[in-house]
């Protein structure tokens, strides 16, 4: 009987110590993701809270799939926890790189292991040499029942492993970051499924003042996705207001969020700062918002340069930036972050918002959309709070934020909702006392846009502004016509000179097309056959809005004088003929130059040159001849009228004689006849 009790006690002790012994003696195991001969595949479907408090639990759901053609037996999912806390960023990184590098305790499995066989309640006087019940050969206890599940070919099963906080053996009255390892076991082989940290809050974690700033710019779909991912209370957003729609304002509840403005088109601020540009950045900031709701178009603007140096920070401050944002990985970020925390002041002037490299990079890039991203970010924030001593921290994922879906980021939500995190606005952060930092004067100049190209773009802007003064709304016209120029140097093309040069050329060509939209139509040589007259000038407007211009005609010869400068308004897409009055002094061939000017007298078109054949003497001679002919015609008409009038006023003719008078036979009779006729008598001598 005593032997039976001793045997039972030994069996129980072995059963209690088996998990610890197995963990200590566990051989090196190959992660499932890289094991080509693994009989099953497994992934974590869901993981519990990243923060475990007293009374809570750790749980995970693992999906196991059998892709083979044969059944797989004895499949078990197990959970392990590191024996010691991961007290530093280095130890956390080492665990994530090799989860089995730290000693682990096996805390649970699914299915649970079968219970050990019950010992016989035999007599104490039983023969010790007799074989035990159930052992056919008498060499030991009976074989345990097979553990685990059988997964049929092509089938998938979900197994839930969970352990209470009390069962984890975590210390009371302390907090710490621990590693959790999930494995799938097939018979005697085990494979890594996943590993992630948990933050044990057995005691309060030090407070962490945290500011989060998301950047929403690029394609409309990208802007919308970032706004959705960052829709967490207290999270600020910097966006390009020209890409914002009224629907997004309502859908993302932007009227209730802290919003900062970014320059339209995301111009390469580093190149502009090094060139000391003022015109391109002014236009990029002046572009109106895509919605009339809110004050997004006039919100404070943030500079996000490709490189953070003293000249860029001073230039941004001089152009009205609320701050220069230093993103992790950009040249100069390490200088800005050196001992400065989340807020600094550049030695050249201007505040710097310095994003925390570790937290910002994790949020932006670490396994987007996974549970591991959430738990790692929360664990890092706890270690940051412990190391920072209450110093404020800025998290800014920037342009590289890899979104794991189309909804709110679970990792960002978990970070903001961590019990030790105190969310603060960017405005509050900018109100803190800043630390002065020394920055390099200029950085990354090899990737700058050449100064000559920036000067070409600025000249086009100056010309477009002059042209815009001919429109009814000059500022609006300038914004529309100049937008292709301001957007020709995006930051995204900074590392691709060929693509950037092509974008610059395209912007200049679009500007040139606008500048030639108002012009004087080409004309053949003209004739002026008088000493005064009008020269017709055809003004063409190919632009999308009416323009008002002054037509200026210049004669290159003193023989032809220009008398006026007509002002004409040409509707959009139309042409108008403007008559210019001239006066000729003498006949000659005269060269004329015509140009269109704004109301301020600046040329807004190319000069058009043509010839005029002036024949002023021809016109005088023709006028004289015409006048003589006219007088002659008038005289002839008068004479004819008089003659017609005399004939009409004569006495009516009398009756004709019955017989004709005799012809005179002699010369004397003929003279007598003529004398009688001249005295008014009859030919026969009668009165």
Which helices and strands, and how do they pair?
Elements: H1 2-25, E1 41-47, E2 51-52, E3 57-65, E4 72-82, H2 89-97, E5 104-110, E6 149-151, E7 156-164, H3 165-168, E8 175-186, E9 189-201, E10 208-216, H4 220-229, E11 236-239, H5 246-251, E12 259-261, H6 269-274, H7 279-286, E13 302-303, H8 310-318, E14 323-326, H9 333-337, E15 343-346, E16 351-354, H10 357-365, H11 371-388, E17 393-395, H12 410-417, E18 421-423, H13 426-430, E19 435-437, H14 451-468, H15 474-486, H16 497-515, E20 518-520, E21 526-528, E22 532-541, E23 547-555, E24 560-562, E25 567-570, E26 575-584, E27 588-597, E28 608-614, H17 616-649, H18 667-678
Parallel strand pairs: 2-9, 10-11, 10-17, 10-18, 11-12, 13-14, 14-16, 15-19, 21-28
Antiparallel strand pairs: 1-3, 3-7, 4-5, 4-6, 4-8, 8-9, 15-16, 20-22, 22-26, 23-25, 23-27, 24-26, 27-28
Helix pairs in contact: 7-15, 10-11, 11-12, 14-15, 14-16, 15-16
Describe the structure.
32% of the residues lie in helices and 25% in strands. It has 687 residues and is of the alpha/beta class. Strands 2, 4, 5, 6, 8 and 9 form a 6-stranded mixed β-sheet that branches. Strands 10, 11, 12, 17 and 18 form a 5-stranded parallel β-sheet that branches. A 5-stranded mixed β-sheet has the order 13-14-16-15-19. Helix 5 (246-251) links the parallel strand 11 and strand 12. The longest helix is centred in the C-terminal third of the chain and has 34 residues, at 616-649. The termini are far apart. The model is unreliable at 1-36 and 678-687 (pLDDT under 50).
């Amino acid at each position: 009987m005593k032997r039976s009790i001793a045997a039972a006690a030994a069996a129980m002790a072995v059963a209690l110590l088996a998990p610890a012994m197995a963990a200590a003696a566990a051989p090196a195991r190959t992660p499932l993701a890289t094991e080509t001969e693994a009989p099953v595949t497994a992934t974590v479907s869901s993981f519990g809270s990243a923060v475990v408090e007293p009374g809570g639990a750790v749980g995970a759901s693992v999906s196991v799939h059998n892709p083979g053609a044969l059944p797989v037996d004895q499949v078990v999912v197990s959970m392990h926890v590191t024996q010691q806390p991961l007290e530093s960023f280095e130890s956390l990184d080492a665990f994530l790189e090799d989860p089995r590098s730290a000693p682990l305790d096996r805390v649970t499995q699914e299915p649970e292991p079968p219970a050990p066989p019950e010992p016989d309640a035999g007599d104490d006087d039983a023969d010790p040499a007799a074989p035990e019940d159930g052992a056919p050969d008498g060499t030991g206890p009976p074989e345990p029942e097979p553990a685990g599940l059988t997964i049929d070919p092509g089938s998938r099963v979900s197994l839930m492993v969970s352990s209470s906080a009390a069962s984890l053996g975590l210390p009371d009255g302390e907090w710490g970051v621990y590693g959790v390892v999930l494995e799938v076991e097939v018979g005697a082989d085990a494979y890594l499924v996943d590993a992630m940290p948990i933050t044990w809050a057995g005691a309060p974690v030090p407070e962490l003042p945290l500011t989060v700033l998301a950047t929403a710019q690029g394609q409309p779909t990208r802007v919308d996705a970032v706004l959705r991912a960052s829709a967490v209370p207290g999270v600020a957003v910097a966006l390009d207001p020209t890409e914002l729609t009224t629907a997004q304002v309502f859908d993302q509840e932007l009227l209730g969020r802290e919003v900062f403005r970014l320059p339209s088109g995301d111009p390469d601020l580093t190149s502009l700062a090094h060139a000391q540009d003022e015109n391109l950045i002014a236009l990029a900031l002046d572009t109106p918002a895509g919605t009339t709701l809110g004050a997004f178009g006039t919100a404070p603007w943030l500079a996000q340069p490709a490189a953070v140096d003293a000249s860029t920070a001073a230039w941004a401050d001089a152009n009205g930036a609320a701050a220069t944002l230093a993103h992790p990985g950009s040249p100069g970020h390490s200088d800005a972050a050196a001992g400065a925390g989340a807020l600094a002041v550049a030695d050249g002037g201007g505040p710097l918002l310095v994003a925390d490299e570790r937290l910002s990079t994790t949020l932006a890039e670490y396994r987007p959309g996974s549970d591991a991203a959430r738990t790692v970010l929360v664990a890092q924030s706890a270690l940051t709070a412990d190391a920072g001593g209450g110093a404020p921290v800025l998290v800014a994922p920037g342009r590289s934020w890899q979104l794991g879906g189309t909804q709110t980021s679970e990792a960002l939500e978990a970070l903001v909702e961590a019990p030790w995190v105190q969310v603060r606005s960017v405005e509050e952060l900018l109100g803190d006392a800043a630390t002065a930092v020394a920055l390099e004067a200029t950085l990354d100049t090899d990737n700058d846009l050449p100064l000559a190209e920036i000067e070409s773009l600025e000249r086009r802007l100056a010309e477009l502004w002059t042209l815009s003064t001919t429109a009814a709304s000059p500022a609006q016209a300038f914004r529309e016509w100049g937008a292709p120029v301001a957007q020709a140097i995006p930051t995204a093309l900074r590392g691709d000179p060929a693509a950037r040069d092509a974008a610059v050329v395209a912007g200049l060509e679009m500007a040139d097309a606008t500048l030639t939209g108002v012009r004087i139509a080409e004309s053949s040589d003209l004739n002026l056959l008088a000493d005064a007259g009008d020269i017709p000038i055809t003004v063409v407007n190919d632009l999308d809005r009416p323009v008002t211009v002054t037509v200026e005609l210049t004669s290159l010869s003193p023989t032809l004088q220009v008398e006026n400068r007509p002002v004409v308004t040409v509707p959009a897409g139309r042409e108008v003929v403007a008559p210019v009055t001239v006066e000729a002094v003498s006949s000659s061939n005269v060269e004329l130059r015509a140009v269109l000017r704004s109301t301020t007298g600046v040329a807004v078109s190319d000069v058009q040159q043509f010839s005029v054949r002036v024949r002023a003497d021809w016109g005088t001679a023709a006028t004289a001849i015409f006048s003589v002919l006219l007088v002659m015609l008038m005289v002839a008409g008068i004479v004819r009228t008089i003659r017609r009038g005399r004939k009409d006023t004569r006495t009516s003719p009398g009756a004709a004689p019955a017989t004709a008078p005799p012809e005179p036979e002699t010369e004397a009779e003929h003279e007598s006849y003529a004398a009688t006729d001249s005295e008014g008598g009859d030919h026969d001598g009668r009165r």
